[in-house]
Amino acid sequence: MRQLRNCYPVLAFAILLAQTNCFAAESETVSFNRDVRPILAEKCFACHGPDTNQREADLRLDREEGAKDSAIVAGKPDESKLLRRLTTDDPKERMPPGSTGKSVSDAQLETLRQWIAQGAKWEQHWSLLRPEKPPVPELAADAGAVNDVDRFILSSLQDNGLKASPLADRRTLLRRISFDLIGLPPTAVAVHAFAADQSPDAYQKVVDWLLKSKHFGERMAMYWLDVVRYADTGGYHSDNHRDLTPYRDYVIDAFNGNMPFEQLAGDLLPDATNRQKIASGYNRLLQTTQEGAHSPKSTRPSTKPIESATRQRVARRDKGMC
Fold this sequence. Notes:
Layout: H1 2-27, H2 32-43, H3 45-48, H4 64-70, H5 81-87, H6 106-117, H7 148-159, H8 170-182, H9 188-196, H10 202-211, H11 214-227, H12 245-256, H13 261-266, H14 274-279, H15 304-318
């Protein structure tokens, strides 16, 4: 009994701490883009999103006007059809349907409830928002900031009670820059030259030198070629070889030549030069088959896999997963 009485203060403190955390969570502003959109995108958009062929009940939850017309009552979560359908015990009314294998967790439901209670403020997708230049944080002269990026980072560290890591030595700094820009370690000659260069612009000079390297285009092209699924084989059962190296080299040259992205993505074919025709090699990077009796539709180039993969990556980033 004495041991149990000794536990009372600990239990009381734990209960008080839990209540404090609950109050803090309830008072925190829920962001549509950060907190709500990822839930709706994962659980609802397949049937209530932009795809007209898959849309059910003529309900769109990816548009503010569609959601607030019938599913969401701003400021009144208990009157919102969205929450009723997500929490009902009736399997015929419950959303998402059991056939989808999806479910909304208690934490996600609470996020939706708080968002609606706070007024269901809608936000455009981050990619559609006009960038705004924030004010540069002011720091003490001895804070160690060299540029504006440093000031933002150091300000955030201070707000969270953290300190910056020690400055990297020349060898480590060059190694990081080299891997970032060309994907290769620096040579011994480059390391010694950078360590010996004590001029104020030594860092900028080595960055410019790496940007002029042919390996810079190879490094940057890797991401682009991954998105368009570049491969030297057809990818089907026979996995036959196909020579699309001219397109690979075109992308590398485009980055090394600092070609604008809108041109890299949008060269047109009428009266095209050989170089522009090579740029269209992207349309050949789909899975192919050489067997007979296949549908003409199966050979039609499709951008859906690329669009889907890109959307999934954006969604994962929005959730903080990458």
